[in-house]
Task: structure prediction
Amino acid sequence: MKSNNVPASVWRNPVHFAAFGFGAGAAKYAPGTFGTLAAVPLYLVMRDMAIGWYLMMTVLLFMLGVWLCERTSRDIGVHDHSGIVWDEIVGYLVTMAAAPSGWEWVVLGFLLFRLFDIWKPWPVKWCDRKIHGGLGIMLDDVVAALYAWLSLQLISLF
Result:
């Protein structure tokens, strides 16, 4: 794990603060893991929504994330800074869409999302390398989340 060099603007600029997961991405080590942890309370608030509302909210948060991540990465001069974790927040929400109830599913979804986000199987790695800007920052995590979502759904069948 590498140490996270957090720009001072994260604590002064609300856009940067949001992109850094409201401070979770400022963790010295494993900011992506802390960013995913920051998503858990949001998921717990959203999980009882009808699936249509849940998905609509997740899409809106994705679109907001494209803008937040683009603006923050441009402002700080670092594409996909490790502390930008809005993508992990949305990725976890995608993973947990229509997940079964129970704390064990919350944990399993967390672990599966982190696995696929770190492992980056095709086309996650391709998205990470080839698609730039805010969309690129967001998209590789959403594709990783789709792997995690599918895995979670398959596991729930047994």
The CA atoms of residues 95 and 150 lie 8 Å apart. Helices lie at 14-19, 31-46, 51-76, 86-95, 103-119, 124-130, 133-156. Residues 8-156 form one domain.
